[in-house]
Design brief:
The complex is a heterodimer of chains A (361) and B (270). Chain A is an alpha+beta fold and 361 residues long. Chain A has helices at residues 3-8, 56-64, 106-116, 121-134, 150-162, 180-197, 208-214, 232-237, 242-247; strands spanning 18-27, 30-40, 45-49, 71-76, 79-80, 91-94, 168-172, 200-205, 217-222, 225-230, 252-259, 262-265, 268-271, 279-285, 290-293, 300-309, 313-320, 325-331, 341-346, 352-355. Chain A has nine helices and 20 strands. In chain A, the strands form four sheets. Chain A has a six-stranded mixed beta sheet, with helices on both faces. Chain A has a five-stranded antiparallel beta sheet with strand order 13-12-11-14-20. The two termini of chain A are 48 Å apart. Chain B has 270 residues and is an all-alpha fold. Chain B folds into two domains: 13-50, no CATH class; 63-269, MetI-like fold (Orthogonal Bundle), CATH 1.10.3720.10. Chain B is built from twelve helices and no strands. The relative contact order of chain B is 0.12. Classes of the chains: A alpha+beta (361), B mainly alpha (270). At the A-B interface, strand 6, helix 3 and helix 5 of A face helix 8 and helix 9 of B.
């Protein structure tokens, strides 16, 4: 997958591939990016996923030209852009904080980028109107930002970023200030619009569900590095490391023992996703891979501590006989009361194990 | 807003306070107006002759210093406002955007002139103005450099309040990603959103410049205030008339500030 064979491919849109090559970013003596490599194909939707402080936003800002990398290359459409200022990079960006210009109406906010590119006022307003229609806000074109809800402001910001048909769309946690329902709605809408326009998109988020739901590929970041870069299914089913597993999917940790390429947990022997050192280990188990079974079936005894209704399913926290606490997902109609004795077992799926961390005093 | 402040004075007390304070301002004002209506020698009753005499071509020579002073003061006000808007404002935006850690230092420096008496400032300004006189000449407008410093505290307060009210950093980054160069960012995004603060800063600067006497007098410049003193020695009536005119101008300026403030508020609640 080199730059050249991608550039030769005919493209309907102006979308460009994006590359970070060994990008390092330091603030004084603090290094926040440790040689990040990222390769986003034209038209692809890629998420940078990680906890706060992992460098994902910095990586995005380096792409946008809002931060200058200490070392490394940034390429957009195969062209090195380190020396190109933000306003010449032909990008669109939506920020975490509301960034609509307060003195302009939604329509003029949206037309701003077109006007800066020399599009005549009438034409710019017409195209801005179309862009607002695209995000479903055509009827609010004359509102000022303080007359719009948070979700509406971010929609206008999205229209404003897309109306110039940028080569790359950068989204810096645009949903994190919104409430849960609006967040899911807008998330799906961003993906729908992105698929329709085919705009290369880099999406920064700390919400793994968000990243897995909309992305073609996800780059999981931690401590200024990309830990794993792959399709959502790969990350979920075959996490490259314990760190990734811990971040993707709501895993619980239980003690086990690695023997060859299998691991023994609660008397069950399961295959390993990736090799691990023989001996005592911690095993990642997911709520959906645990079952509550009949009292006489194979499994391990446990006591329910807490049970949460999640709509279509119910998730219970149980304390297993070996002392560890795990989340078990089960049908919503099986109501479990705290203190109730149950029997749980693991599905026969490959799991990931990591050595028991050294106890530090 | 039906909250009643238990410490608020009662209805009667409020009237007493209002009338008392009103009189305090009204009496000298009315006295000045009456004074200017004193008839010319030989006349009787009240007359507007002295107001009319002001524009009488026959008196042109006598009042020329006043008109010159007024012209100089207005020029100075204009140049000072230019300094505030063209130099000070971009600097404040730059500090907010790129050097947020300098803000405290900057604030201290900007507010410093308010704590220095004008007479002290002049001690430092005199040698500087020797140099300025040699290089830029002794035109009245050069005093604007000193006035630019004098109005810093007032300008700083009103502009900073506007800067704090918006997210300058995100707005300019958003504008940059949309293709705006730094000039566009400043003129099309930041300045329109600082409108209120900039207007207040400009008007307060004008008011300060029109009312300044000490520095102008000690640096031997002719401004409205120095001319008033000179004319007052020959003709107290004319000085009083000009004082009233200056008051009226300041009143109009304050009205404009208030009006602009209300427009802003109206927009937020509409």
């Amino acid at each position: 997958m080199t730059i050249t064979d991608r550039e030769d491919a005919p493209s309907r849109t102006r979308s460009a591939g994006v590359e970070l090559r060994d990008v390092v970013k330091e603030y004084g003596s603090t290094r926040v990016l440790h040689g990040v490599d990222l390769d986003v194909h034209p038209g692809e939707f890629v998420s940078l996923l990680g906890p706060s402080g992992c460098g994902k936003t910095t990586a995005l800002r380096v792409l946008a030209g809002l931060e200058r990398p200490t070392a490394g290359d940034v390429r957009i459409g195969g062209r090195e852009v380190s020396g190109v200022p933000t306003n010449k990079r032909d990008i669109g960006m939506v920020f975490q904080s509301y960034s609509l210009f307060p003195h302009l109406r939604a329509i003029d906010n949206t037309a701003f980028g077109l006007r800066r590119r020399g599009v005549a006022a009438g034409e710019a307003r017409r195209r801005a109107g179309d862009a607002l229609d695209l995000v479903g806000l055509g009827h609010l074109a004359d509102r000022f930002s303080h007359q719009l809800s948070g979700g509406q402001q971010q929609r206008v910001a999205l229209a404003r970023a897309l109306v110039t048909e940028p080569r790359v769309l950068l989204l810096d946690e645009p949903l994190s200030a919104l409430d849960a329902q609006v967040r899911v709605q807008l998330r799906d809408e961003i993906r729908r619009i992105q698929l329709r326009l085919g705009t290369t998109t880099v999406f920064v988020t700390h919400d793994q569900e968000e990243a897995l739901a909309v992305s073609d590929r996800v780059a999981v970041m931690g401590s200024g590095r990309i830990l794993q870069f792959g399709a959502p299914e790969d990350l979920y089913l075959r996490p490259a490391s314990a760190e990734v597993a811990a971040f993707v999917g709501a895993s619980s940790l239980v003690p086990g023992r690695v023997v060859g390429d299998t691991v023994t947990v609660w008397g069950q022997t399961l295959p390993l996703v990736s090799p691990a050192a023989a001996g005592a280990c911690e095993v990642f188990v997911r709520p959906e891979n645990l079952r509550i079974v009949a009292p006489d079936a194979t499994g391990i005894d446990a006591v329910v501590e807490q049970s949460t209704f999640l709509g279509s399913v119910r998730r219970s926290l149980v304390r297993v006989a070996d002392g560890s606490r795990v989340h078990v997902q089960h049908p919503a109609d099986q109501r479990r009361e705290p203190g109730e004795s149950v029997r749980v077992r693991l599905d026969e799926v490959a799991v990931l194990a990591r050595p028991v961390p050294a106890v530090s005093s | 807003m039906a909250v009643v402040n238990p410490l608020a004075p009662g209805r009667g007390a409020r009237w007493v306070i209002g009338v008392g304070v009103g009189l305090l301002f009204a009496v000298p004002f009315a006295a000045t107006v009456l004074f200017t209506l004193t008839p010319l020698p030989g006349g009787s009753g009240l007359s507007v002759d002295r107001w009319i005499a002001l524009v009488d071509p026959a008196n042109a020579a006598k009042y020329r210093p006043l008109w010159t002073g007024l012209g100089n003061s207005l020029t100075l006000a204009g140049v000072t406002v230019l300094l505030v808007l063209g130099l000070f404002t971009p600097t404040m935006v730059l500090v907010a955007l790129a050097f947020p850690r300098l803000r405290r230092v900057f604030e201290f420096v900007a507010l410093l002139p308010i704590s220095l008496p004008a007479i002290v400032l002049v001690v430092g300004l005199t040698p500087l103005y020797l140099q300025i006189g040699r290089t830029l000449g002794t035109g009245a407008w050069t005093l604007a450099f000193a006035y630019g410093i004098l109005v810093l505290p007032f300008a700083y307060r009103s502009i900073q309040a506007s800067i704090d009210a918006i997210d300058v950093k995100t707005l300019s980054e958003a504008a940059r990603t949309l293709g705006a160069g730094w000039g566009s960012v400043l003129l099309r995004v930041i300045v329109p959103n600082l409108r209120q603060g900039l207007l207040a800063a400009a008007l307060i600067s004008v008011a300060v410049v029109l009312g300044e006497f000490t520095i102008a007098s000690l640096l031997n410049r002719q401004t409205l205030q120095t001319a008033l003193i000179v004319v007052n020695k020959q003709d107290g009536y004319v000085a009083a008339i000009f004082t009233l005119l200056a008051l009226a101008l300041a009143f109009v300026l304050l009205l404009v500030i208030g009006r602009v403030g209300r427009i802003g508020v109206g927009r937020k609640t509409s």
